[in-house]
Amino acid sequence: MQRELVEVDGLLRKVNVPAQSEAVKCLEVLREAAQQSIDSDLPIIVW
Fold first, then answer.
1. CB neighbour burial string for 14-39, b if at least 16 within 10 angstroms, e if fewer
2. Using CA atoms, how far apart are residues 27 and 8, in angstroms rounded to an integer?
3. Quick one: pLDDT at residue 47?
4. What confidence tens digit (pLDDT) does each residue in 3-46 have?
5. Residue ranges making up the domain that contains 16
6. Spatial distance between the Cα atoms of 43 and 37, rounded to a whole number of angstroms
7. Which of 1, 4, 43, 47 stands the most exposed, by the fewest C-beta atoms within 10 Å?
């Protein structure tokens, strides 16, 4: 998942999506969740 999130980040930057946009904020949350999932060896649960 982290690899895909890095790719999405690159695409958003390529098309100059503003850092304050909802898409970038969502991406940041997902990247943090992915890192915490790896660190704790637990799944990400989205509801």
1. eeeeeeeeeebeebeebbebbeeeee
2. 8
3. 84
4. 999 999 999 999 999 999 999 999 999 999 999 999 999 999 98
5. 2-40
6. 6
7. 47
Number of domains observed in the structure of the chain = 1
In a domain, 25, yes or no: yes
Q: Is residue 28 part of a domain?
A: yes
Q: What are phi and psi of 11, to 5 degrees?
A: -65, -40
User: What pLDDT was estimated at residue 39?
Assistant: 96
46 within domain boundaries: no
- Which tokens hold the place of 17? 């999506």
In a domain, 45, yes or no: no
For the chain, the straight-line distance linking the first and the last C-alpha, in angstroms and rounded, comes to 18
